[in-house]
């Protein structure tokens, strides 16, 4: 094998070793771009904590049981609507893509002009 082949093999081995060490230690590689990302996130967290202390944002809270139930009901309704739409598309009765039309006005909703 030529000499430059050995250089490539050694470079790949060193790079792989660095990746494994960084994953095990939890620290990014020193020249990695994650350093800048981490610093930016730390600054953002500090700014959010400062806003929280000043009362500009409300603290996170655990949702109540009724809020959880409402969210579950909304998800269930959404699932039912998606299933209904899939069934309509499968049978060929899919809703038309024409613009919606206004429903006819109820006769009692307008003032009577014949009296």
From TrEMBL:
Residues 83-115 are annotated as: Disordered. Keywords: Membrane, Transmembrane, Transmembrane helix. Residues 97-106 have a biased composition (Pro residues). The chain crosses the membrane at residues 6-24. It comes from the Bacteria. This is Uncharacterized protein.
């Amino acid at each position: 094998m030529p000499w430059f082949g050995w250089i490539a093999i050694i470079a790949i081995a060193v790079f792989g070793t660095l990746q494994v060490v960084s994953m095990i230690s939890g620290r990014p590689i020193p020249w990695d771009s994650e350093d800048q990302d981490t610093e930016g996130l730390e600054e953002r967290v500090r700014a959010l904590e400062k806003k929280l202390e000043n009362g500009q944002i409300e603290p996170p809270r655990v949702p109540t049981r009724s809020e959880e139930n409402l969210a579950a009901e909304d998800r269930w309704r959404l699932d039912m609507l998606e299933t209904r739409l899939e069934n309509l598309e499968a049978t060929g009765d899919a809703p038309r893509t024409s613009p919606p039309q206004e429903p006819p006005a109820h006769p009692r909703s307008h003032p009577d002009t014949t009296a």
